Structures are given as C-alpha cells and as structure tokens.
C-alpha cells in the first residue's frame, strides 16, 4: 500500500536508531499497528484502540507472533502482511480481551472469522462486521522493562521517545481516518493526542465503581473516548461493558 510508504520509512529509521539499546526487546520489530489493515479499511465503521507501546510479551522466545527476520521483511508489503496476520497467529489474547469484550458490543472485533482456539480465554465471542486495529501512542518500540519502568529508570527518555511515538501515531491516524478511537492508557496520553482538546465527562451508572471514568472529545473527524485503565486497559468489569458500549454508541 503506497499510502504507508512515507510513514514506514520514518518508522524503520526510528527503530534503527534504537534497536541496539539494551531496553529494546531482543528479536523484535517496530509495530505500527496490530490487525488486518485491509479488513479495517473495508469496515463500515472504522474503530481503533489505543494504548502505550507494544509489550515485550509480543516477542516471546518460543512463540512467534510476528515475523522478525529482517531479511524476510525486505519490503513494505511483507511488513504490513505480518502486522495483518497478528490476530490469526498466537495473539496475546489475555491482554487484548480487555478491549475485545467491549468491542463485541460495538459490532466490532480484532478477529475475523475465528477466535483463537488455543487462547485459553473463553467468553461468548462472535465474528463481527467491523474489524478493529490496535495502535500505540507512546512508542512503536517494544521495551523490556515495561514502558512505565523504563521511564522511571530513564526519565530523559520520556520526552525523546514520546515525541517520536506521538508524531508517528498522528501520521498514522491521518491514514486510517477512524470514526471511533478508544484510548485506554494513563491520563497523560490524552495530552499526547492533543493539549487543546475539550473533554466531556460522560455519566456512568451509580452502581459502577467511583474510580471508573469515561471521557469524550472530538478529534479531527473521530469521536475519541478515554476509558480509565488499570494494569490492563479498561478497568470496568466484564459485566459492565455492555452498558459502557451503549453509552459509547449513544455519543458516537
């Protein structure tokens, strides 16, 4: 896809500048997005989810989630293909289900025709009309230690990496043109989207825990929802996600 040529040049330059640092996950590649780009572009409603950066658990020793042999990723189409195949081959379902269980109520899913049979996570999953992409706003680089620990131990990296990561993310959004953006990461990521956004606090049912928050803003042509996280995205109980989805649909 020619529309990705410029951003991929920037992505690989960024990766090559840091790939030999000890905190970059070994045998990893930069991740521009997770999911099937063609199915996303064909979806009637285009939805993306957003967190901080790819986990080092995306590149385990004994399981292959992405092609990481750079000799086999020698052109942009091959790179985009390995990103598009992610949810078909050993995805990190335990983490992504925090979003997936909400997406199901929005007639959307990361997965296409089948949910991974070897995932060990069981819930009432069904294929949906809209295929979702996941993106990361802080960095496309997988880090070990985690993003939070890395910046705690190396505070000077925060501005350096976040500036580059946010710039790439914004350029990606210009290509993807989502209708709905679901952001569930630390509150500072809202300013990484834009410091000029006005946020509306959406009212949640009284029975929800007081720590839960749902905020809405208009960002370019998208409805942008910030959903309070914990260690994983979306701190809401699974049984509350159908109600959360109804509120999102009402304001989309």
How would you describe this protein?
The protein is α/β, with parallel strands linked by helices and 252 residues long. It has a single domain (2-118, 126-250), classed as 3-Layer(aba) Sandwich (Uracil-DNA Glycosylase, subunit E), CATH 3.40.470. It has eight helices and eight strands. The strands form two sheets. It has a six-stranded mixed beta sheet with strand order 4-1-5-8-7-6. A hairpin with a 2-residue loop joins strand 7 (214-219) and strand 8 (222-227). Helix 1 packs antiparallel against helix 6 (156-176). The longest helix is centred in the middle third of the chain and has 21 residues, at 156-176. The model has no long low-confidence stretch (mean pLDDT 95).
Structural class: alpha/beta
Instruction: Compute the CA-based radius of gyration.
Output: 17 Å
Biggest sheet features: 6 strands, mixed
Mean pLDDT: 95
What percent of the residues sit in helical stretches (DSSP H or I)? 25-40%
Terminal CA distance: 29 Å
List the helices and strands and how they pair.
Layout: H1 5-18, H2 37-42, E1 47-51, H3 76-84, H4 93-103, E2 108-109, E3 130-131, E4 133-136, H5 147-153, H6 156-176, E5 180-183, H7 188-193, E6 200-201, E7 214-219, E8 222-227, H8 241-250
Parallel strand pairs: 1-4, 1-5, 2-3, 5-8
Antiparallel strand pairs: 6-7, 7-8
Helix pairs in contact: 1-6
Summarize this, please?
With 252 residues, the protein is α/β, with parallel strands linked by helices. The protein has 8 helices and 8 strands, in the order H-H-E-H-H-E-E-E-H-H-E-H-E-E-E-H. Helix content is 33%, strand content 12%.
